[in-house]
Amino acid sequence: MYLPQQFNSKNNSDAIDLMRQHPFASLISVDDASFPFVSHIPLHLEVRESGLVLWGHVAKPNPHWRYLSKRPQALVTFLGPHAYLSPRVYPDLTRVPTWNYLAVHCKVSARLVEDPMEKDDLLKMLIGEHEPAYAAQWRSLGEDYQLKMLAGIVGFELTISEVQCKLKLNQHRPEATETTKALYACGGENEQSLVRWMDRLGMTGKPTSQT
Fold first, then answer.
1. For a surface tag, which of 3, 5, 64, 173 has the fewest beta carbons within 10 Å of its beta carbon?
2. Cα 129 from chain centroid (whole Å)
3. Residue 130 host element (H or E)
4. How many domains does the chain have?
5. What does pTM read for this prediction?
6. pLDDT tens digit string along 192-202?
């Protein structure tokens, strides 16, 4: 993605936190006609000593798993909080509107997960992340029903080879930081989340002391 230096986060924890806080991702690869094909799915992030891995699945009728089998290289994108920014946050009028947002892009290599037991482990990871209490209900459904459900999906392990993390929060316009925070603090969930990220990045709008 287009990534100006002032918005380029090289802190790995920023990308990890965004992927975990906003796990509903876009998996993008190409179909047999070399046209982009997208599946919108939740992904589970696993942090290993060797690197980062994403786990997910699609319904078996979804052809995406076949495309990944033929062409394992793919792109995964995560979109975090985002919001419009009015030019009225600036002290002068010669300004234009913009949009602040947080995003992570991951270059990945896919391995299909088709073994029923491995798919069951994959589902348990997703259950553990989103609704741990459901695990008991899943176990109570019976082996035959579980196998039937597992047969209806194809899982995948996505090994991440490259991560880009864009934190576009108007960092290059410190004269508007305080008014932006005040404006966003009165907004909805997205705006208030952006304020927390501005605080996390130490954005105060005030010059930092030189030591």
1. 5
2. 15
3. helix 116-130
4. 1
5. 0.92
6. 999 999 999 99
